[in-house]
Amino acid sequence: MKSVFVTSASLALCLGALTAPALAQDADTIKIGVVAAESGSFVSAGHTLPAGVSLAVKEINDAGGVKVGDKTYKIELLKRDDRTDIATAIAATQELVRDEKVAAIFGSESHDFTLAMAKITQPAKVIHFAGNSTLAKVLNPQSVAAGGENHYLFQSEPQEFQRSGSTARGVLSLLTPLVGHPLKKSVVIVGNDATGQFLTSYYVKALKAEGQEVPEVISYPPDTTDFSPFLTRAKSLNPDVVHFWYNGDSTLTALPQALELGVAPSYFLFGVDPGIWKERGLSADVPVAMSCVPICWGESSNANAKTYFTNYFAAGAPKGVTSSVSLLYYDYVHFLADAWEKAGTLDPDKTVEALQALHHKGVVSDDLAFNASHQVTHATEVCAAAPGGDISCAMQQPPAEAPAE
Q: What's the predicted TM-score (pTM) here?
């Protein structure tokens, strides 16, 4: 997801909130918040968070609410647009924590934003869920232990070695029979920002673990629209696969240019749903793989996902490149409600204990559970469009261990 430089002014805002106390909930309502880019440059992913959380809240409330001990609560959702601006995200988090008395916050989809927001949520003992694999930088058994600086922070996306590993394996297994010969050389093209660099380091290791030669990672400025110099460089390396990594919006700009230049005999588009491929009438004369974060809405092999997305779009959510990102949040609203019921209290420490002990049946997995570092594990769905338009999809399980350095 998006990464943005944190200014000194923004950090000052964070530090000013470190002593913010957690406030009590209203008598019959549990307030939760979501902070996401509903406008600005990262809206394609940002709009999915409030849509997924809103659907879960509606389902819980329509079913009667959350029974905590001998009392039943309805959930009230407070949504804040961070406008793809880190200072706005910080200010919104401060308001939700200090003024609105939220018990939990979901977001942001932007990695750096989440780290800044956690400086506010954690001292205030607010349960915080975020689907950012870069949280591995701060989550470990010590930091999430009782009294640790991130005790109330939970990563709702698998560790990056798992997501990258399952993606690489799925892409190569689907493309190989379509290309008709073994795939040996991969070139990765990625946006040149902090998140792109972090994610790509894992993906390159995953490709190499699958036997790929990766002669070069080609980075482009995040706002690039003319990819021809980068694609020309990639073509000179004679790759079997060009992997457009990390930003789904950019890849849909780059792919037509790559096809025109005949850069490779196959391609992979990270974070592009086959539903968008079909709705936009896209086509290619070579195989094109796509992956979803974590499950596709346009052509899924997951029966639970089909029901979820029917309800998700019926509630008014737009069909976007990364609509599936909503599942990194939807499941965890239900998970949190289960934890409150199991704990029998809204006390944040008891809630964390319940979250760590529970196994939740969600859409992305029948057995969602947090490890000792507050991280989950589940499969990733990968699809491939054959020349002519036929699309096939498969859920790919993650590797058990990170590849050797």
A: 0.87
